[in-house]
Specification:
Number of strands: 2
Strand content: under 5%
CATH topology of the domain at 61-118 and 156-291: MetI-like fold
Radius of gyration: 24 Å
Helix content: over 70%
CATH architecture of the domain at 61-118 and 156-291: Orthogonal Bundle
Structural class: mainly alpha
Order of helices and strands: HEEHHHHHHHHHHHH
Shape: globular
CATH superfamily of the domain at 61-118 and 156-291: MetI-like
Mean pLDDT: 88
Low-confidence stretches: 288-292
Distance between the termini: 57 Å
Strand order of the largest sheet: 1-2
Number of helices: 13
CATH class of the domain at 61-118 and 156-291: Mainly Alpha
């Protein structure tokens, strides 16, 4: 067999990666560049684009709905992330033990992750129904007043956060399970010899050894939280009184309800910048606390 020269080997490599390069340029590179151009223009899809300079940035800074959507999203994150991490970690610890039908329970908890988000959202919308929903029916039977889950500004976003936690927790259970199984059993055996209790082993061995997994779960949860769209779009439409209007839902409405494509692109870049800042702060705080 003829041995390929260096130039021919490089050429073969370029040919092999060419499909991905084409895919990246068409579906990532071009939309990104076009979106950046839109930031400095006004465009309603129908009329030609008009150069607007920094108008979209100025409008964003004085747009109360954007800041409200950002507060709503942060409220969602404050509820969703701790709830998700705690539940996922507890269940992962249970499923890491030798229990009956362990494989069945692992698959069951992961099942909601692979089911369509729209289907699950519609199901939970029925659960949250004020008059006929499952939750209020149970409350009525035990003589507790019905809760306006999705029609009261105080309950709407927490209700969505609970539903999103149920939907996504299976993924983080799997991640924590992988982290738990990577911890050497010899460390726990040494702790047993020293007389450490189960609680001590959890806080002084399990939690520190799960630091890399914890950081990954924290970042993924943050990215997922900032991407909140399907749940408020289907369940509440952003209401009541914009109390569940998320950043991504607001971008969607500006783009496809009002045809403000330039402003929607500006919002998207602003949210991406905010996500980057939040993730950097999270990593700095978390890693400083752990490794200092």
């Amino acid at each position: 067999m003829k041995k390929l020269g260096r130039y021919e080997t490089d050429r073969v490599g370029y040919v092999m990666v060419l499909p991905y390069i084409i895919f990246f340029l068409i579906f990532v590179g071009y939309p990104l560049i076009f979106s950046f151009i839109l930031v400095f223009h006004k465009w309603n899809i129908i009329s030609p684009m008009k150069f607007a300079g920094l108008y979209n940035f100025n409008f964003l800074l004085h747009d109360p709905l954007f800041w409200k959507s950002l507060r709503n999203t942060l409220t969602f994150l404050v509820i969703h992330i701790p709830l998700q991490i705690i539940i996922a970690l507890v269940i992962a610890n249970i499923l890491n033990q030798k229990i009956i039908a362990r494989g069945f329970f692992r698959a069951s908890f992961f099942l909601p992750v692979v089911i369509s988000g729209v289907v699950i959202t519609i199901l939970w919308q029925q659960f949250y129904s004020f008059e006929t929903g499952l939750f209020n029916t149970i409350l009525s039977r035990i003589n507790i007043a019905k809760i306006p889950w999705l029609i009261d500004t105080k309950f709407a976003m927490p209700s969505i956060a609970i539903m999103a936690t149920w939907k996504n927790v299976g993924l983080y259970i799997v991640l924590f399970l992988a982290g738990l199984q990577a911890i050497p059993s010899s460390i726990y055996e040494a702790a047993d010899v020293d007389g450490a209790s189960g609680v001590q082993k959890f806080f002084y061995i399990t939690i520190p050894m799960l630091n890399p997994t914890m950081i990954m779960v924290l970042i993924l949860s943050t990215l997922g939280g900032f991407s909140l769209f399907i749940e408020p779009y289907v369940m509440t439409g952003g209401g009541p009184i914009n109390s569940t209007l998320s950043c991504v839902l607001y971008i969607y409405k500006q783009a496809f309800y009002f045809n403000h494509m330039g402003y929607a692109a500006t919002l998207a870049f602003a949210v991406a910048f905010i996500i980057m800042i939040v993730v950097i702060i999270q990593r700095k705080l978390f890693e400083t606390e752990v490794y200092a």
